[in-house]
Amino acid sequence: MIIALAGQKGGSGKTTVAIAVSAELYARKKKTLLVDADPQGSVRTWGAVAAEAGKETPTIVAMGANLWQPGQLPALAGGYEHTIVDCPPRHGDIQRAAMMVADLVVVPCGPSAMDAWAVAESVDIINEARKVKPSLLAVVLITKKVARTTIGKQAREALQEAGLPLLSTELGFRVPYQEAPAAGLGIAQYAPKDPAAGEVRALVDELMAFANPKKKRSAHG
Questions:
Q1: What is the torsional sign of CA 156, 158, 159, 163?
Q2: pLDDT on residue 221
Q3: What tens digit of pLDDT does each residue of 144-176 get?
Q4: What is the C-alpha separation between 200 and 181, in angstroms, rounded?
Q5: CA atoms of 95 and 105, how far apart (whole Å)
Q6: What is the CATH number of the domain that holds 195?
Q7: What pLDDT, on a 0 to 100 scale, did the predictor assign at position 208?
């Protein structure tokens, strides 16, 4: 399965989620490809940090707006069980290219209603892609949620009108999400007993349900 982390808004956690999911899949002994499609190159930096620390990572490659073309990602991804693509914000051409090859698009969204409102622009790009690829699945993932606040509830209510289902899993605003990449590790490998690790495991379980149609999906609209 090819999963694209996309969204027009910056700072929503796309790269963090891409690293966390790919690292968890790799830890589960899945042959995993992590594609850095963001010119900022944060995924490649994480890979370099991991290599310097002697840590193993999924295979990491850099690609751009031509990743959808024959001989590019469609050919490369065939050698892997799962491929995760980290897309940059505000680069519609790269996001569209990723959606042309993806099976599932995950749109990370911050915990506020204003973050949720920004998802509408991402939905427009997804709907454009679906004109060419009607089978494209897309979901929203709430990130950076602060516990014991009503902000997450407000975001969920606003997202109900966005037209995309929401994943049941939510990622909290937790320190390991910032510290793990700097250590060249995945979240669950860096802090296995932290609630963040449980969130990442639950997220991967939920995403893998899309790869197995017989398994009940927990995303809901």
A1: positive
A2: 39
A3: 887 666 656 666 777 777 778 999 999 999 999
A4: 14
A5: 10
A6: 3.40.50.300
A7: 95
39-78 in b/e burial notation, b at 16+ Cβ within 10 A? eeebbbebbebbeeeebebbbbbebeeebbeeebbeebbe
Question: Which of 31, 94, 92, 88 minimizes the C-alpha distance to 68?
Answer: 94
pLDDT of residue 202 exceeding 90, the answer is yes
> Domain residues for 82?
2-146+160-211
Instruction: Judge contact between 74 and 101, C-beta under 8 A.
Output: yes
Let me know if residue 152 belongs to a domain.
no
Statement: residue 185 has pLDDT above 50:
yes
Based on the structure, what is the number of domains in the chain? 1
Sign of CA dihedral 167, 13, 172, 205: positive
**Is residue 216, in this structure, part of any structural domain at all?**
no
Can you tell me the mean pLDDT for 33-61?
96
Tell whether 90 is covered by a domain: yes
Asked whether residue 219 is assigned to any structural domain, the reply reads no
Tell me what the mean pLDDT of segment 185-198 comes to.
Answer: 95
**Of 22, 82, 131, nearest in space to 73 by CA:** 82
